[in-house]
Amino acid sequence: MRVVVAVLVIILLVLAFVLQPTLSAPYLGHGRADPSRLRSDVEWLTATPRCADTPDELNAAAVRIAMELQAAGGRVQNQPYEGNHVGYRNVIASFGPPNGEALIVGAHYDAFCFRDVLPGADDNASGVAGLLELARLLGREKLSSPVTLVAYSTEEPPFFGSDEMGSAVHARSLHGKERAIILEMIGCFTEVQPTETTPWLFRVLYPRHGKFVAVVGRWQDIPLTRAVKRAMKPVVQTVSFTGPPS
User: Fold this and answer.
1) Distance CA 120, CA 110 (A)
2) To 5 degrees, how large is the angle CA 145–CA 147–CA 151?
3) 62-81 burial by CB neighbour count: b if 16+ within 10 A, else e?
4) 2-21 pLDDT tens trace
């Protein structure tokens, strides 16, 4: 009996470590995201070629993103760099006080170069739309600490996993201790999860529908993962997963 209890305790501890159960915190913001603006941003992004093979068109998307961030009240700067001897740019917008350790929120604005089949609405126009709407919300707040929003370029192949990813370029310019939240494919929605491609353990632990936001972090990111999940729970169903780096 003691062995059974010990095994159950270990299982519960492992599940708690992976799932990070939290209590909800009260929503303290002064505004909420505008669904019509989110949809509008996704629509213009998917109508804009954002493939690294056409850098002029990709950089044109960066120009509009910069304009939207500046209109929201951000202090905007470009971070130019080269990938495969071609010029690209990250777009960086700062909100709040100029000094202090900034919380970084990022999303990549390039799309996989298979436009006729994959227009990049979910991956990752949805993330960029979320970033722009977050900028509009931050612009209305009196922030006590700095927040940096970054639109990354060249995250898709052939740059994925290389030192020429926009996020890797940006990371090298930092001190290495900054906290970061990355908005990735936040626009996917389904009434029923595709069970044939979902591992059985995930089917047990997570909802059967796709109407939730997942907060994913490494083991060393547990405090930030829990904070993000706790802050989001009052307004959207939120689940989380923490594990080793992939």
Assistant:
1) 8
2) 175
3) bebbbebbeebebebeebeb
4) 665 555 655 565 556 566 67
Contact 16/240 with Cβ under 8 angstroms?
Answer: no
Q: Is 176 exposed, middle or buried (0-12, 13-18, 19+ CB in 10 A)?
A: exposed
φ/ψ (deg, to 5) at 243: -165, -175
Handedness of CA 37, 39, 40, 46 (dihedral sign): positive
Token code pair at residue 73: 């009240």
Query: What are 187-197's pLDDT values in tens digits?
Result: 988 888 777 77
Q: Which domains does the chain have, with CATH numbers?
A: 24-187 (3.40.630.10), 189-246 (no CATH)
Q: Could you tell me which residues are beta bridge partners of residue 239?
A: 214
Nearest alpha-carbon partner for 86 in 37, 52, 121: 52
CA distance 174 to 98: 15
Q: What is the pLDDT of residue 69?
A: 98
* Vertex 117: Cα angle to 159 and 156 (nearest 5): 10
Task: Give the residue ranges of DSSP H helices in the chain.
Answer: 2-19, 35-46, 55-71, 127-138, 166-172, 200-205, 222-232
User: Among 103, 127, 143, which Cα is nearest to 223's?
Assistant: 103
Task: Tell me the CA end-to-end span of the chain in Å, nearest whole number.
Answer: 37
